[in-house]
Amino acid sequence: MNRTIIILNIALGIILSSCKENNPLVGTWKFAADQEIDSLQNVIRQDTNVSGLLIYTPNGKMSAQLLWNERRNSILNDSIMKNDGNSVAVGLGTNSWTSEQNRIFIDTYDSYFGNYTIDWENNIVIHRINGNLRPEKNLTEYKRHFQLNGDTLYLRSSDPKQKWRVVWTKIN
């Protein structure tokens, strides 16, 4: 009995490790487009003036950084920066940004990291958030339908009411 359990555990370990090695999401992806889509997933409009990286590791860690370049203005006016780009402190501090500067920052940048799992049967990747630019999102899950087309990854919300999709291209 014990020998059977040991053999099954070894077999399961081999299967799981080979799944991770063959995981096409593992790697670094460059943000290519933010798209508005209709119910048939046709692109209504898109913003390609975007930057960002999405990283999936073989051991289930992930990180995403997204920047919409077109609408962002330079913000170097807070208690840590003195408009000269030289840091004068470490930590949170208080900032002197205007409401408009705060809005521009929050509306044009997003980042988070955590763990991920994949539901291969339904083509869903689940991002479990451990840290986020928006602290109220910590410990939540982002469920994303994914579609791979060569070196292009399409992610969209699993919520059918959401009409957006982001496009990533693999860089390694």
Q: What does this protein look like?
A:
The chain is of the alpha+beta class and 172 residues long. It is built from two helices and nine strands. It has helices at residues 2-21, 99-108; strands at residues 27-37, 43-47, 50-56, 61-68, 109-119, 124-132, 141-149, 152-157, 164-170. The longest helix is centred in the N-terminal third of the chain and has 20 residues, at 2-21.
Topology diagram in text:
Blueprint lengths: L1 H20 L5 E11 L5 E5 L2 E7 L4 E8 L30 H10 E11 L4 E9 L8 E9 L2 E6 L6 E7 L2
Q: In a nutshell, what does this entry contain?
A:
With 172 residues, the protein is an alpha+beta fold. The chain has helices at residues 2-21, 99-108; strands at residues 27-37, 43-47, 50-56, 61-68, 109-119, 124-132, 141-149, 152-157, 164-170.
Give me some keywords for this one.
172 residues; alpha+beta
- What percent of the residues sit in helical stretches (DSSP H or I)? 10-25%
- Using only CA atoms, what is the Rg? 20 Å
Number of helices: 2
Q: What value does the average pLDDT take?
A: 80
**Strand arrangement across the biggest beta sheet:** 1-3-4-5-6-7-8-9
Quaternary form: single chain
**pLDDT < 50 stretches:** 11-20, 72-90
What is the strand content? 35-45%
Distance between the termini: 44 Å
